[in-house]
Structures are given as C-alpha cells and as structure tokens.
Amino acid sequence: MYHKRKISLIITLALVLVVLPFNVITAQSNIIYEKSTVQTITSGATLENIVRFTDNGWLNINVIRIDLSNPYIKVDTLTNKNSVKKLTSTLTLAKDWGAVAAVNGSFFSSLGSGNGYSDGPVVQSGEILTAWYEFNRYSEVMASFSLDNQNNVIYNYLKPEITLIAPNGKTTSVMQYNYPSRYNYTDFTILDRKWDAKSIGVSANYPDIVEMVVDNGKVVEIRQSMPAVTIPENGYVVITREKGGKFLTENFNVGDDVNMSIKTNPDWENLKMSVSGSSILVKEGKIPDKFSYDTPSISARHPRTLIGSSKDGKQLLLVTVDGRQTSSIGLTQLESAQLMLELRAYNAMNLDGGGSTVLVARKPGTSNINTVNSPSDGAVRAVANAIGVFSIAPPSELEGLIIDMEDINVFVNTSRKLTVRGYDKYFNPILVDPQKVQWSIEGIKGTFKDGAFYPATVGEGKITAKVGNITASTNISSLSAPVKLELNKKSIKLPVGGSATFSVTGQNKNGYSAV
User: Fold this and answer.
1) Strand-strand pairing, 144-148 and 153-156
2) Nearest residue to 390 (alpha-carbon basis) of 141, 68, 54, 35
3) 328 exposed, middle or buried (CB, 10 Å; 0-12, 13-18, 19+)?
4) Which sign does the torsion angle of CA 18, 19, 24, 29 carry?
5) Angle CA 268–272–275, to nearest 5
6) Which of 1, 220, 246, 399 has its CA 20 to 30 A from that of 445?
C-alpha cells in the first residue's frame, strides 16, 4: 500500500512539472488533458501527434522533428513537376517527388482554372523558380524560410532584384520572373519553361505585345503583336509593351548576347531551398512585440502551418494545428508563437494556413504516404508549393517488424487478419515475405492460418511475429461471443449487378465491441 501511494505522488508531481512551464511560458489557455504519441518516419525524422484539451477547447497538433545534421535526410521545396503555376495538393506533390513527409508552404494567389502563384520567391534544389521585384520592396512583411548549401537555417525578408542587361550596357528592372504581370505587361516580365510551354502572345487586351525570345543566352527573335511562341527549353521570353517594347527594339537585335540577373539577400545561388511565409513568430527565443503581418482576420483562430528551428539550428520543426472544427479550434498568431516556444523553437515563422494546412507522412514500414491531419475544408487543397522531407539513406537489411491489424479486439472463434511490415536500420520499408513469418500466441489459445489469427479462448493475449532473428509483438483481446451486431450503413441502394462495401461491428454481453 505504501509503494502505491509513493508512485501516485511521483506521478502527480511529474504532471505538475509538465503543465506549469507551459502555462508560465505561454500564458495561454490551461491544459486540462493531453495525450501524445510519437512514431519514426525515417532516420532523422519523427512525427508526434498531440491531442490537447484546454479551457478554450480541443487542439490537434502534429509535429515533424527533423535532424538536419543527419546525413540521410534532406529537406526541399516541392512544386508541380510540369509547371510552377499549376496548383497541386501537398499530398500529390509529396508522392510525385518521393518525399516521406511534407507540409504546405507559401501563401499563394489563384489565377483560376487550377493555376496560381506563390506570393514570394521560391527556390527548389538550388534553382530559383519564381521572383517578384516588388516583394518586400517597400516594407518587410512576408518572411521567407531558407536552407543554404551547408544546411544552415535562415529566416529573413527576401527582396529580389531582377535585371535585364543589353549588349550596349543599358539595363532595365524586370518586375516578374515566372509571375503574371501586375501592370498589364507595361512592365517587364520573364517567363521560362518552368512557368509554361507557351508565352502570352497577342490578344485583344494586349494588341501591342512585344516578346523577345532568348535561347542559350542569345536573342533568336523579337516578336511584335504576334501569337504566343514556344518558350525555349534552355531560354526564356521577355514580355512587355508600350515603352518597354521600344526599349527592347532599340537595344537588342537578333544574335545579341543577353544577360538576365536575379539577386537576393542572401544570395539564392547559395540556397538549397526557400519558401515564403508571413510573420516571423519567434526570433532568437522571443516573440516580437509586433508581427509583420497582422490583420484582424489573420489574428483570429485558424488552422496553422508553422516552421521553426532549435537554437543550434540542427533541429527543424514542421508543425500543423487543425482548426475551424469541434475537434480542434485552431490558434491565433500569438498562440502559434507561444506553441512554437513550447516546442523549443528558437526561431519560427508562419506559413500559409486555413484550408491549406496539411501534413502528410508515410506510415512506418510502408511507402504509402497519407494525410495525417484533418484539413478544415474536408479535403486536401491544391497549393503553390510545399516543404518535403526526403530519406536519402542507402538500402539496408531488415532491422525490425511491425504487426498491423484492423482491431486489437476480436471475438472468440472468429478471426483477425494480420499484416507484417518490415523496416531497415534507417526505418525505411522492407518487403516481408508472409511465408517466412513465424507466428506464436501467449495468454490465450488460438491458431494461425494464411496470415490470420483464430482465437479459441477468451482473454488477453500477446501475438508475436518472427522473421529470422527479428521479432515483434502486439496485444490482442479475445472477446466472448457477440450478442448484438450492427452494420455501418442503415440502408443500401444498388442497381442490378452493382456492389457495396460495408462493415459489421459486434458487441458482447459485457459491452465490449469489435469489428
């Protein structure tokens, strides 16, 4: 009896130590209940799910922690493989690029018909994809997150400078690189194949359009009031009109060398990746007195996607908080900053949120990547870009096993299907031959056949799978026979020859249920 009381006292004190620092640091709503589970995505990346109930309501928080010092992990920007203007869901982007996890990235604007563009510059795999001259030009509002070639974390307000240089030394500022014109193409816009296969071309709105086609650094054609042209694979098209058209025709000729320069601070040529966000939420361990991007609508509680890093810069955090739902109310910008401090971020930034907030990750032991959080729109939204996590570890031998089953409860004299998944020392999936799995059961009696367990007695048991010298175990509960059955559908309407899938849940005399 004495030992039990002592253990209870220790647990109570531990809970006080966990809760108090959070309340002191954040001064936000009190935590009434919290449950946390952690799984490994790959070597150097874990996914933690935190379900929290506060005096303001429920919160569903997902945190990917990435060890940037791990040589077998990579973080990069994800964009549509065919065109940076094509909006694509974070889930599809992750699958297309082979990422093991991802969150949505930049705020973006829509052009309609599934097209749009990031509100800030984008760097992917060391290549700048988009830049807008006026971004942060007059005030530091929209911050960017970048990783340089040495994997150093950078938070700052990028200000791109895009310049077109003629052979005679004359220069002009280019407003957009792989962006639509903000001034009806009376400015200078440069588009390459990362934007589209074709240029703008003449139209009723732009009857005087002038397009200079550049291939491998040389002018190959200057087109005036002509249809859209195919953009060279190794070149670009300079688009303008009115005074801009005069500048092109007076300073360039076919065959001339052309120099187009894009500069940023820090220099994008030293960056591996970069995406834009909005406010810097935490700077050097402190919440700013005023956020750079703060309006009544943005300050309300919303779903949030956040990015942060540790003081030594070796740990990166990708965070989502669901919102606009009973199961998760979302956070304000201030609460988001407080959460990032709680998660030990020394620097942190706000990414696009709301209906864009999505976190995807693969299930341990599989290559299947799925949506982890609960998007507020009820579906994964198409976005301009995402931040992806990649495993670049070499192939390795079987290191561990995971046993999967639909339900740990099963009725006696029925069966439960079992699946074994394998992983190597880098936690990357390895296919397991079902014929090589040896099964055993403790605590109850039963048999195994064709990857299924058939319990013969009622009680609590432990199932063990073994492949060579590698084992894994899981608990199973064998219930007494059901006294009640319930279908998951109240009615089914089908045409002749049609089909439908449904499940049946049973309940025994003690009120315990199983699929």
Assistant:
1) antiparallel
2) 68
3) buried
4) positive
5) 75
6) 399
| pLDDT digit string, tens, across residues 119-174 | 999 999 999 999 999 999 999 999 999 999 999 999 999 999 999 999 999 999 99
Supply the DSSP symbol for 69: T
pTM of the model: 0.90
Query: Which of 223, 225, 215 is CA-nearest to residue 255?
Result: 215
Burial zone of 36 (CB within 10 Å; 0-12 exposed, 13-18 middle, 19+ buried) = exposed
Extended beta strands in 90-247, E state: 101-104, 108-112, 115-118, 122-124, 127-132, 144-148, 153-156, 161-165, 171-173, 176-177, 189-192, 210-215, 218-224, 235-240
What is the per-residue pLDDT across 333-349, written as a single tens digit (0 to 9) for each? 999 999 999 999 999 99
Q: What is the pLDDT of residues 220-266, one digit of tens each?
A: 999 999 999 999 999 999 999 999 999 999 999 999 999 999 999 99
Amino acid at 388: G
Positive or negative torsion for Cα 147, 153, 155, 157 = negative
Of 356, 366, 365, 319, nearest in space to 341 by CA: 319
Q: How far apart are the C-alpha atoms of 142 and 119, rounded to whole Å?
A: 9
Q: Which H or E run contains 338?
A: helix 333-342
Q: CA separation (Å) from 132 to 107, 160, 187, 236?
A: 14, 6, 12, 16
DSSP for 408-439 reads: SEEETTS-EE-EEEEEETTS-EE---GGG-EE
Map tokens 């589970």 to a residue. Answer: 37
What's the full length of the chain, in residues? 515
